[in-house]
Amino acid sequence: MLQSSATIACSRPDADAERRTFLVQALAASGAYAMLRTRPALAGGGGELVDTYLRFVTAQNAGDLAAVRALFTETPRFLWVSDGQSIWGRDAAIDRMSLFRQSEVWRVTPDLDAAVTVTLDERTAYLHLPLVLAIGPKAGPDHLPFLVSLLGHRERASDPFAIAALFTTTRKMG
Length: 174
Description:
Elements lengths: L4 H7 L3 H24 L7 H17 L2 H7 L7 E4 L2 E4 L1 H11 L4 E6 L5 E6 L2 E13 L5 E12 L8 E9 L4
Parallel strand pairs: 1-7
Antiparallel strand pairs: 1-2, 3-5, 4-5, 5-6, 6-7
Helix pairs in contact: 2-3, 3-4, 4-5
């Protein structure tokens, strides 16, 4: 009796892992699409910087650290300030981010309605927004409020923004 290719594909030992990976990527893509459709219109280069940030969030939520790294400026002067520490260079930042990815759940949900951009010139802009980070075990992850600010820079006005600096801190509620 002949089996269909779908049956054969599903009978492979790694088929469940492949389906989970596909599902995570599809959910991340649909979430990014929903964020893009509902984000506020921002004047000047602000909307373009938000687009870069959304690619960053989508890559983070998918666990795609290579895509995250590609969004950072290539200079060794890239800066991420996290938990009171200065992390210099995109490789060091990715090494630190990989530690956080060890949690079962790690998902960023930005509050795009509260996003504020400051366009300094056609090549440089600043974005500030709150977000919630879900992190921890699947059975009960913590939901932590954060503030994120990032500096976007591009060599030419026609280039997409790259993230030159990223500043994260816990958000004080109240």
